[in-house]
Amino acid sequence: MAGYLVRRVALAIGVLWAAFTVSFVVLYLLPGDPVATMAGGGLDGEPLSPAALDALRARYGLDQPLIVQYGTRLWAALHGDFGTSIQSGQDVGAAIREALPPTIQISVAGLAFAVVFGSVVALVATYTSVRWLRQVLMALPSLAVSLPVFWVGLMLVQLFSFRLGLLPSVGAKGPESLVLPAITLGLPTGALVAQVLAKSLSIVLDEPYVVTARAKGAGRVAIHLRHALRNAALPALTVLGYVVGNLLAGSVVVETVFTRPGLGRLTVAAVSVQDIPLVQGIVVFAAAVFVSVNLLVDLVYPVLDPRIAAGAAV
Predict the structure, then answer these.
(1) DSSP secondary structure letter of residue 260
(2) Chain centroid to CA 61: how far?
(3) Residues 193-246: tens digit of each pLDDT
(4) Rounded to an integer, what distance in angstroms lies between the CA atom of residue 191 and that of residue 178?
(5) DSSP designation for 294
(6) Residue 91 in 3-state DSSP?
(7) For labelling, which of 124, 185, 287, 305 has a CA lying 20 to 30 Å from the CA of 64?
(8) Nearest Cα to 194, choosing from 250, 266, 243, 259?
(9) Nearest to 250 by CA among 286, 297, 284
């Protein structure tokens, strides 16, 4: 188990390093000058002089060779310092912490909706004996996965906000403002969970131990929930670890559609002005969340199925 954990932690560190390096290279390959973009109008409405722009570049370390900039930023990042935002002058960590709470709200709400929606669809689809209902439920996830997130959001706003007037279409005031963004964000994820869980349940329900449980007189509900669901949940658990990153990426679209503050809108603003330190801090933060969740999933796996840790030890 210790070796299994060490390998997973080493892989997580490698992913974080790769996220930092790739974001650094991509941001510096983008055309344009972030300092010139930021200071194009100057404080008094006049363009800054070349000398003033050079001073700003020196302030942010952008006048140094690329390899020196990379080494300096990597060393600072290892100490939790991603510098200051070129656009606002605010500390990158403080800017992320300030924008994070609204994004956490919709991400948690979206994940909760995805788990409930996906689990219910998968369980009912594999439990029901009504053929047409089973076919409809099995086809529903494929349809939901194919729908663009922004289109789903706009349709929900059109129906529940403009026509029925039940829920607010913009803003982040009150629990009711979370409902439409959570559904928009969680629907594709829930559909993916439903697909994987339904397929896994269909396979597990044909396993010999399930057949034995039926022969001993176990009811269908008990077989589904007590015998089949635990083993069938392993692939779905892997999917949940993967889609956490999608939830953060989807927040960019959802926060834009519903005009909500958060990490998504901060990312859009930072990319539009090539705010390199801020964008890089957000990318590494998102990668850290992704690898942390996947590491947690990897640790839960051996609890659900001890054969995994046994296999890793071989």
Answers:
(1) -
(2) 31
(3) 888 888 888 887 777 777 777 777 777 777 776 767 777 777 777 777 677 767
(4) 19
(5) H
(6) strand
(7) 287
(8) 243
(9) 286
